[in-house]
Amino acid sequence: MPIFKIFSRFTLFVLFVNTFSHVALAEDDKAEALIRERLLAARPDIPILDIQPAQIPGFYDVYLPAGQVLHFTADGKHFYTGDLYGVTDELVNLTESSRSVQRKEVVDSIDESQMVIFSPPEGLVKATVTVFTDIDCVFCRKLHDEVPELNRLGIAVRYLAYPRSGPNTPSYDKLVSAWCAENPKMALTRAKAGQDIPAASCENPVTAQYELGGRLGINSTPSMIYEDGTLARGFMPAGELAEALGIL
């Protein structure tokens, strides 16, 4: 076959793919705008975080705070709630997979300067967990006792503040004092050991991180987010967590 014919067919194929992609994107934009318009008309106060095409053709996922997802038809006239599962060789929670993607994007956007981080030496980090933590939570303290072993295994622990009792409470004040301390790592360790730490105040992210936790569906501590956005609730010994992260 002459080379110009091959090239022409390839060019037509590329043009077809590009045209199809632009049409699909335009349809998605139109559907997302329509869904947003109809939903806000019915509930002007509803806090829409994002709208994305769903894994079911013709449906769109509307993300709300606390991990809630509404599955909408493209015309914005109907939706259902609840997790969507895929059936292959096993049951796969597709809605939770989408939540993980959202959590990863949010956590990746947080500046590490706003966290209190306990990390292995540079070059020895095999995995990282981001942990919403409280000072007065028993299992948060148990997890913190595991931090030296987690670091030895190559796991970095990045803390975000989540005072379960809410802002302007004793637990909240302790987290603020830890974040504002001259040595936040030492202050947090002492506070989690039940020791008094000096009261301190500064411009801090504690309230913002508490509110962020609520938007991500965090309602207990410790709550750990893996690098892929997976959410794991509760305490795990260092070895068990390392296995869950695939490094043992």
Fold and architecture overview:
By secondary structure, this protein is α+β, with helices and mostly antiparallel strands. The protein has 2 domains: 3-82, Disulphide bond isomerase, DsbC/G, N-terminal (Nuclear Transport Factor 2, Chain: A, Roll), CATH 3.10.450; 112-244, 3-Layer(aba) Sandwich (Glutaredoxin). It contains 8 helices and 11 strands. The chain has helices at residues 3-42, 94-108, 138-145, 147-152, 170-180, 184-192, 206-215, 238-244, and strands at 50-53, 59-63, 69-73, 79-81, 85-87, 91-93, 116-118, 127-133, 155-161, 223-225, 231-233. A 5-stranded mixed sheet has the order 7-9-8-10-11, with helices on both faces. A hairpin with a 3-residue loop joins β5 (85-87) and β6. α5 runs antiparallel to α6. The radius of gyration is 23 Å and the shape is globular. The N and C termini lie far apart (55 Å). The relative contact order is 0.12. Residues 12-17 have low confidence and may be disordered.
Brief characterization of the structure:
The protein has 248 residues and is α+β, with helices and mostly antiparallel strands. The protein has helices at 3-42, 94-108, 138-145, 147-152, 170-180, 184-192, 206-215, 238-244, and strands at residues 50-53, 59-63, 69-73, 79-81, 85-87, 91-93, 116-118, 127-133, 155-161, 223-225, 231-233.
